[in-house]
# Entry
Amino acid sequence: MSDDGGWLNRYVNTLPERGWFQFLSKYVVVPYWVWREGKPKLPGGPRPSQQPSDSTQRMMNLLMPLKDPSPIGRAKAVMALAQNVDEIYAGLDNVGTVHSARFLLVEDYICMISVYDGDFSNYIRDFIATIGSVFDALMQVVEGGDKLAPCEHNVEAFIDWVRAHDLFQAPDFPIEMFGLQDAQVGKVPNHPPHALQTLPRALILQLHANRNISLGGGYRGYPGFSAAQIRQKLGVGW
Amino acid sequence: MGVVEEHDGWSDVRGMAVRFHLAEGRSTDLVSMTLPVFFAPTPKTFLDFARKARPARCRRETPWEKIKDYLRLQLPMPDPYPGQTERPNEGAIAFANDHFWAQAAVLDASSIGAPVSYVRADYHAVHTFVVTGKEGEKRQVRFTWAPVAGILDTDPLKPPVDAYLQDDLKKRLAHGTERFTLMMQIGEAGDDFEDSTRQWPPHRKRVMMGTLTLDHVPEDQQALCEKLSFNPWHLTPGIDPSGDPVLKIRKDVYAYSSNRRGGIPCPFSGAKG
Ligand code: HEM
# Structure
């Protein structure tokens, strides 16, 4: 079998790169499969786990839709944060479970990307307690934020909102996508097992439901250690 | 996956066996491969897998079959390499479709590619070992060699080259040295210690244990390479095998095989070959 299968085979091998076939896939093939076996949206944030290293250096990728994505609206978002820098530093120092956090303006979102230790709800609670005013200012520029401010008075609703806007974290091992999709619709994961060839479809359909995702749970240079342990070891703790 | 002829440029799993020569004539082995996860949790299930995944006649999917795959949002099977008449892929995938535990390894093995160099791949010892610390504390761990030169595969769209890995290594080591770092991942209660089809999350604690420096390729490949015998059970006090049943059976399997091919005996070569 030293030939390459002739022109038709060569042509078919390049189909996924051809404009007309991409057009067909986008407007016919994918919508058909979404109709036939569409997947529900998968929830955001790290998945529950009892194991010690799972509760350190968790990743938050919070995408908050801007009320007004125009340059003026964006400037308002920038100002909301710029006026609160001291509050953020003070909050960070007092919460003590944050490795790093940053805000980004990307397309129509203001994003908060952070690495924290411990339970998600507690993390958000700590934040509200220490930098609630920052979030209140943020909520002014975020779609649907009016209902949540002041967040000290809407703690549970605020936690739910954050959870709903935290990105789904794709599994670190691709094969685990099947099990997550099963569990989401109340099935026993991988009983019966899925055909391996259908993994690309499972991924495409999930990306239809979760347009923005985190690719895996993140990479860590010193996995398994909390911010508190590192500070203590370096003699900069309290 | 059981293909006897060597084709450096074909997508396949590669192995690396290392013996550490320690003080007072002691030594310890670390046998590893480029696949991070194994095909089956027990010897019996591995045999079932191996029977199904035995290399079988392969053919190119027809254009119509490939179009059907695309319309199903699936990837067609890769075209066989020039000259390739057999491969394990179809059988392995069919088996994995019935056995979830085989899926991670089969998926990885089907897409593993060919490294541009032996020193541009990472090698995993796969099974769990139990190491004992200074205070007598025991930890369940898994080892990986990470190439300092970084991981790089050949371009799968280019025609594969048949033999280049040996020459590449000789050329590299004629000019200098190449290194690997030995990484040790520490398992936690709740991780699978006795089932190498189950990978641990990548964010478990990781300890850098040291570096391996390669400085030459010995001239006499027969005596100083082919005749050697490694055994994943040849370990120094302080490193113990876990209860992984696949690891268990490898002790006698390697000794038996070494005897059969007249290898320099490993410490377990009492087993009849
Ligand atoms: C049931 C599972 C397995 C069986 C039955 C098996 C069997 C064998 C046999 C018979 C040999 C030849 C030994 C000799 O003649 O000295 C061998 C070599 C080898 N195996 Fe395995 N193996 C298994 C799993 C693994 C795993 C999980 C790894 C990697 C972590 C691995 C890596 C290697 C390597 C690198 C060699 C070559 C060693 C050398 O250079 O001497 N094998 N295997």
About this structure: The pocket of protoporphyrin IX containing FE is lined by residues B 15-17, 31-33, 38, 43, 46, 125-126, 228-230, 246, 249-250, 253-254, 257-258, 261, 263 (CB under 6 Å).
